[in-house]
Amino acid sequence: MLVLSALLLAGCASKTPRHNDQDRQTPLTKAAPSHVSQAWSMFTENAASHYGVDERLINAIISVESGGDPDVVSRSNAVGLMQIKASTAGREVYRAQGRHGQPSTRELRDPAKNIDIGTAYIRLLQQRMLAGIRDPETLRYATIVSYANGAGALLRTFSRDRERAIAMINDMSPDEFRRHVQTRHPAAQAPRYLWKVNTVYRTI
């Protein structure tokens, strides 16, 4: 366990982690993943239950995206624990909830609201763009990659037709899907992001 923790925390930044849409080199920062999950468990449990999303996945994304620091803001203005961009994921969640506009930076700095919006976005990914992926492990992989780089970018590596892309994904094993991301995803950091989040997921 100590070796795994050392591996995960290798290269940790002492400064606020910063990334943009093309280069998401989000290091694990500050607290160990288990401490991060404990710190925010009240909010992640509520959000997971409300939206029907795997709580371990929420915690893994928080650990990788922000290291549990609710005040992190990236160069591309992704904010808070789950590093949400108000103009993209935030706006999509608002629209799905029948609300106008997008969340404010102040709202996204609020841990409870940030986790709620981030979890709602995961639910949107899984129930809309990624709907139809049958294998739970493959769906988790696809969700992780889509959270960082968008579902459209992922699906287009299979086909421009969503239904055909989903069918092609369903013909793969989870390992085959993971290797596809490694070799075919246009975002160079997508495979590493998938590895980091999935590694944390398995440890908490």
Explained architecture:
This protein has 204 residues and is mainly alpha-helical. The N terminus is likely disordered. It contains 12 helices and 2 strands; from the N terminus they run ααααββαααααααα. A hairpin with a 4-residue loop joins β1 and β2. The chain is globular and about 40 Å long.
What is the percentage of strand-forming residues? under 5%
What distance lies between the first and last C-alpha atoms, to the nearest angstrom? 11 Å
Provide the succession of SSEs.
HHHHEEHHHHHHHH
Reported for the largest beta sheet, the result is:
2 strands, antiparallel
Question: What global shape is seen?
Answer: globular
Number of helices: 12
C-alpha Rg (nearest Å): 16 Å
- Widest sheet: strand ordering: 1-2
> Low-confidence runs (pLDDT<50, min 5 residues)?
1-29
User: What integer is the average pLDDT?
Assistant: 88
In helices, the fraction of residues equals 55-70%
Structural class from helices and strands?
mainly alpha
Count the strands?
2
